[in-house]
Amino acid sequence: MRNTCILPDFLEEISEEINTEIENLGPCRIENPLRLPEVCFITDDMRVSLRVSEGSLREAFKKEGRIPSAELAGPRPYIYFDPAKTRAAIVTCGGLCPGINDVIRSIVLTLYHSYGVRHIYGIKYGLQGFIPSYGHDVVELTPEVVAQIHELGGTFLGTSRGHQPIDQIVDALERMNVNILFMIGGDGTFRAATKIKEEIAHRGLKIAVVGIPKTIDNDIWLVSRTFGFVTAVEEACKAIRCAHTEAIGAPNGIGLVKVMGRYSGFIAAAATLATKEVNFCLIPEEDFDLEGPGGLLAALERRLAERKHAVIVVAEGAGQKYVQGEKPEYDASGNLKLGDIGIFLRDRIKEYFSQKGIEVYVRYIDPSYIIRSVPAVVDDRIYCGFLGQYAVHAAMAGKTGLMISYLNHHYVHIPLSEAVKKRKQVNVHSRFWLSVLESTGQRRLKNEA
Ligand SMILES: Nc1ncnc2c1ncn2[C@@H]1O[C@H](COP(=O)(O)OP(=O)(O)OP(=O)(O)O)[C@@H](O)[C@H]1O
Ligand SMILES: O=P(O)(O)OC[C@H]1O[C@](O)(CO)[C@@H](O)[C@@H]1O
Ligand SMILES: [Mg+2]
């Protein structure tokens, strides 16, 4: 366990071996049209260490004979694509996330104004937009078209879930003469992107595929924090504050809030730290018992006896052992459909206290899509602007199969193939999670503990 504060850098020390080699479509021979002093350009030998602590750096050096590092993102002095002939496309996939429009806008403005690219296509409704049978139009993106989109939540281009034939996607790229594809999405999008990149290589085409990591769950491996996460936490905090108000407004009031977070409880944990009103925070990464002296219900009863009110925050992926159906069901993208832990807890809590003859007032709030459909807050807006700019710099330099990541306090290039190898989750032995436990006062909710 490291004794450092990891907010807002949610990625613990990386101990895995990571291939950080970025593929280039070819040598860069065109002078970058950005009029920058030489020192502002980045070269591929400028790298950021993947290890942060001295011990870990030493250990890596001993094991691998070098310090693992990633390419620094930023404008290269020479570029691969001729801006006058370049055609770029942007697609957004998966669930909504605050800030998607800011990223789209930033990509369009950087392509157009910084590089002079005049053909930018917006692909409608995720991967569906590439498939002719869906009949979705392609949108021409210009600075005028995207001028105000950052004021809106959601995605200006629309999104979708569900696999689409990779060969048809690449056919569409060929038909449109696209040279650069920007894919804004999460782990699923990056799996699709990796396959698209492979099909492009198989056909011998020179098309760059650049990913921008998007998910409110903040669960993308090798990214310290994803855009939209802070906004989602802000919104979750509003629901938690309301739950607290309701809880203190009645004797034995219980405010119960469910927030998104399929496999990673970062939103629940961060909102708990931010609001200071939460007594029990339940996340997918930490198993909990409900019944028995060490379980949630007994702990809740003790809390009510002491303080007459309680607030519980539960991430949607927590406690799935209580709510999973016999036969697993999946969404169109192959993501497991979760059982509803919020409703289950609400009903079981009511039943438990009613059986004991204790009157309680349970107020259940599920802010659901509200936390992800709002426009981005300031911090995310600034972040999204950088992500869009760095994505364009990487693509114009002919780099492919990478995502732009904010990692160890720098923007870097990470191969998509590495990013999809793992999911980032809350480390329950980290200072971050222990701080959540300290701030709620909850003990590990296990009978054997
Ligand atoms: N292994 C895969 N091969 C090809 N396409 C995939 C694969 N996994 C996911 N996709 C496609 O990528 C798109 C986005 O995937 P998904 O719906 O899982 O969202 P995501 O990118 O993970 O974002 P979110 O954070 O919202 O989950 C979907 O159209 C999905 O069908
Ligand atoms: O209902 P939808 O739009 O498929 O997405 C819901 C999921 O998307 C996310 O927002 C991001 O993966 C999860 O937190 C949530 O479970
Ligand atoms: Mg996903």
In terms of topology, how is this protein built?
Blueprint: E1 23-24, E2 30-31, E3 47-49, H1 54-64, E4 69-72, E5 78-79, E6 87-92, H2 100-115, E7 119-123, E8 138-140, H3 143-146, H4 166-175, E9 180-185, H5 187-202, E10 208-213, H6 229-248, E11 253-259, H7 266-275, E12 280-282, H8 296-307, E13 309-315, H9 341-355, E14 361-365, H10 378-396, E15 399-400, E16 402-407, E17 410-415, H11 416-419, H12 431-440
Parallel strand pairs: 6-7, 6-9, 9-10, 10-16, 11-13, 11-14, 12-13
Antiparallel strand pairs: 1-15, 2-5, 3-4, 4-17, 7-8, 16-17
Helix pairs in contact: 2-10, 4-5, 6-7, 7-12
Adenosine-5'-triphosphate is lined by residues 93-95, 126-127, 160-163, 185-189, 191-192, 195, 215, 333, 335.
Question: How would you describe this structure to a colleague?
Answer:
The chain is α/β, with parallel strands linked by helices. 33% of the residues lie in helices and 17% in strands. The chain is built from twelve helices and 17 strands. The chain has a nine-stranded mixed β-sheet, sandwiched between helices. The chain has a four-stranded parallel β-sheet with strand order 12-13-11-14, sandwiched between helices. It has a two-stranded antiparallel sheet with strand order 1-15. Helix 8 links the parallel strand 12 and strand 13. Helix 2 (100-115) packs across helix 10 and helix 4 (166-175) crosses helix 5 (187-202). The protein starts with 22 loop residues before the first strand and ends in a 9-residue tail after the last helix. Residues 1-8 have low confidence and may be disordered. Adenosine-5'-triphosphate (ATP) binds at residues 93-95, 126-127, 160-163, 185-189, 191-192, 195, 215, 333, 335.
